[in-house]
Specification:
This protein has 211 residues and is mainly β. The chain has helices spanning 4-8, 53-66, 103-106; strands at 12-16, 19-25, 31-39, 42-46, 72-74, 96-101, 110-113, 122-124, 129-132, 135-138, 143-144, 150-153, 167-173, 179-185, 189-192, 196-199, 203-207.
C-alpha cells in the first residue's frame, strides 16, 4: 500500500493543481502575468499523529521502500475520501468510458464521448475527473446526454507520450482515476508517550509528467 495508507488516514489534505503563472507588479501598480505552462497535481498530506508505532511500523517501512525515487499511483477511493472525486454523471457504469483522443482533429483540450445517453441526463458534470493515457484531468463544463459525439473539455492540454496513436481509448472515471506521483517530502517522526508516533511535517506528493 506504500504511501496510500497515510493519504487514507490523513488529518488534512491540500490539493493544488493551479497552473504556474509568473507575475510582476510595476511601480505604478500595473500587474503583468505570464503563464508558465501546464498545471501539475500536488498533494500535501498531514498524517495523523498519536497512533502506536507498532500499528504503523509496516506502513512506514513500505513507504520508505517506495521512497522519493519511485513513481506510484495515488487514488481517492477510500471511504471518507471518495466525495472528493465521485463520478457525478448518469452513466450506469461509473468506472470507465471509451473516449476518442485525436488532438490533430479535436485539439489538445478535449476528448470526444460518442456513447449515447438519454436527453435530460448528464454524461459528465463539471468538476468530474477523468484519467486519459495515464494522466488525470478535471472536466470544465457539464456534458449533457445526446445520441451523438460530445466534446468533453479538460482543464489542461492532453499529455501524450511519444508512442501515442490517435483513436479510442479507455478512460477511468472519478475515484478509479490514478494519479501518477512521487513523494517529494517525507517527514520524520518522533516517538512520545506510550510509544506513539508524532509526525514532524507533511508528506508531499507531486504528479510525474513523463510523456
Amino acid at each position: 500500500m506504500s504511501f496510500q495508507y497515510f493519504v487514507n488516514t490523513a488529518s488534512n489534505i491540500t490539493i493544488d493543481n493551479r497552473p504556474t503563472v509568473a507575475q510582476t507588479v510595476s511601480r505604478s501598480g500595473m500587474v503583468r502575468s505570464v503563464s508558465r505552462g501546464n498545471s501539475v497535481w500536488r498533494f500535501t498530506v498531514t498524517p495523523s499523529s498519536g497512533n502506536f508505532y507498532s500499528e504503523l511500523k509496516n506502513y512506514i517501512l513500505d513507504a520508505k521502500t517506495t521512497g522519493k525515487a519511485t513513481t506510484f499511483n495515488l487514488q481517492f477511493d477510500h471511504a471518507g475520501l471518495e466525495f472528493l472525486y465521485d463520478y457525478q454523471g448518469d452513466y450506469t457504469t461509473t468506472t470507465n468510458r471509451n473516449v476518442e483522443v485525436d488532438p490533430d482533429t479535436y485539439g489538445y483540450n478535449r476528448v470526444i464521448d460518442s456513447t449515447p445517453l438519454a436527453s435530460g441526463t448528464y454524461k459528465y458534470r463539471k468538476g468530474d475527473i477523468i484519467e486519459v493515457e495515464g494522466y488525470v484531468y478535471e472536466i470544465t463544463a457539464d456534458v449533457t446526454g445526446t445520441a451523438g459525439n460530445d466534446s468533453v473539455y479538460l482543464h489542461r492540454p492532453l499529455i501524450l507520450g511519444s508512442t501515442f496513436s490517435a483513436g479510442t481509448k479507455v478512460a477511468r472515471l472519478g475515484t478509479t482515476s490514478r494519479f501518477s506521483v512521487k513523494c517529494i517530502n517525507f517527514p520524520t517522526f518522533t516517538l512520545f508517550g506510550s510509544k506513539q508516533v508524532q509526525w514532524n511535517g507533511d508528506f508531499v506528493f507531486q504528479e510525474v509528467i513523463d510523456p
